[in-house]
């Protein structure tokens, strides 16, 4: 397993709506992530900056967002676009983070 981390940005005041939508994550999106080898996926929120910090384990060096051709993800991105910083295709703007320390 490989652990990867990235950050995204919410629009101001969108934290509650973001959490609500993810508590009801569509089964199709969840199934796709698992099928692509994503597990142990957590997203944390920084209230001072509206930054989301995500960590996930993957079986390969892939992430949930390297599956851009999947129709269900486009639908999910469109659903989330009103509360996040997004690219032209409504995919979330993601900044990959480099691991500089790990403790087992």
Protein model, in words:
With 104 residues, the chain is α+β, with helices and mostly antiparallel strands. It has one domain: Alpha-Beta Plaits (2-Layer Sandwich), CATH 3.30.70.100. The chain is built from three helices and four strands; from the N terminus they run βααββαβ.
Mean pLDDT: 91
Classify the beta-strand content into a percent band. Answer: 25-35%
As for the number of domains, it is 1
Q: Tally of extended strands?
A: 4
What oligomeric state best describes the polypeptide chains here? single chain
The CATH architecture assignment turns out to be: 2-Layer Sandwich
Summarize the helix and strand pattern as letters.
EHHEEHE
Estimate the global geometry from the Cα principal axes: globular
Largest sheet: 4 strands, antiparallel
Distance between the termini: 14 Å
Question: What share of residues is helical?
Answer: 25-40%
Runs in which pLDDT lies below 50 for 5 or more consecutive residues are: none
Organism: Mucilaginibacter gynuensis
Keywords: Carbohydrate metabolism, Cytoplasm, Isomerase, Rhamnose metabolism
Enzyme class: isomerase
Protein name: L-rhamnose mutarotase
Task: Summarize the helices and strands and which ones pair or pack.
Layout: E1 2-9, H1 15-23, H2 27-35, E2 38-46, E3 51-58, H3 71-80, E4 95-97
Antiparallel strand pairs: 1-3, 1-4, 2-3
Keywords: Carbohydrate metabolism, Cytoplasm, Isomerase, Rhamnose metabolism
Pfam families: rhaM (PF05336)
Protein name: L-rhamnose mutarotase
């Amino acid at each position: 397993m490989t652990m990867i981390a990235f950050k995204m940005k919410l629009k101001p005041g969108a934290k509650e709506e973001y959490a609500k939508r993810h508590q009801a994550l569509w089964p199709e999106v969840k199934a796709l992530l698992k099928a692509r080898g994503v597990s142990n996926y957590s997203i944390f929120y920084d209230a001072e900056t509206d930054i989301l910090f995500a960590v996930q384990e993957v079986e390969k060096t892939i992430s949930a967002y390297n599956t851009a051709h999947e129709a269900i993800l486009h639908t999910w991105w469109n659903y989330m676009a009103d509360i996040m910083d997004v690219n032209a295709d409504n995919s979330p703007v993601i900044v990959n983070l480099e691991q500089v320390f790990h403790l087992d």
